[in-house]
Amino acid sequence: MKTILLFISFICVVSAWDNLQGNTPTPAQTGEQKQNTKFLFSASDIRCARHTICKKCTEDIGCGWCATSGLCLDGNVLGSTNANCTMWEFAWCSGEPCVEHASCDSCNSDPLCGWCSSTQTCTEGAAQGPMFGDCPSDQWFGESCVGVPNPTQFLIQSKQETLADE
């Protein structure tokens, strides 16, 4: 009985050893290839690392903000491509107030904001309308900026309405 158990143990060890041989990670799997590519062709990190605030970082395609470290890193919607980051911001900054956005496109890139064309301001809201304040429903753009009048056009229209009221 002991001989059979010893023989079975030996066979298990030998088969496990066979499975381990040839499983050495490749340079691509260990990240060594990426480091070599950076060394040979310059670091792509430089493009993202030049940004020191979240807004500028996330406006640069291919970059994302790591709120954990306070650094702008190469990445995509899934996360950083070269670092571990637990608080990843891509395409918009969750900690940034809506009022910081200066255009409708920038405003609508943040899923928690919407654009009021009558006041030319970005405020908290959704497709249905603003969370706070008053913005006429025909002037609210919560998902898309299609049909947003340019600021000059809005000022001319407001001036004409003021003159008509007088």
Summary tags:
166 residues; alpha+beta; four-stranded antiparallel sheet; 8 strands; elongated
User: What proportion of the residues form beta strands (DSSP E)?
Assistant: 15-25%
Unreliable stretches (pLDDT < 50, length at least 5) are 13-21, 26-31, 33-43
Let me know the average pLDDT.
Answer: 76
Please count the beta strands (DSSP E, at least 2 residues each): 8
What's the quick description here?
The chain contains 7 helices and 8 strands, in the order H-H-H-H-H-E-E-E-E-H-E-E-E-E-H. It has helices spanning 2-20, 27-30, 32-41, 45-49, 54-59, 104-108, 151-165; strands at 63-66, 71-76, 79-80, 88-89, 113-116, 121-126, 129-130, 140-141.
Written overview of the protein:
39% of the residues lie in helices and 17% in strands. The strands form two sheets. It has a four-stranded antiparallel β-sheet with strand order 3-2-1-4. A four-stranded antiparallel β-sheet has the order 7-6-5-8. The protein has helices spanning 2-20, 27-30, 32-41, 45-49, 54-59, 104-108, 151-165; strands spanning 63-66, 71-76, 79-80, 88-89, 113-116, 121-126, 129-130, 140-141. The protein is elongated. A hairpin with a 4-residue loop joins strand 5 and strand 6 (121-126).
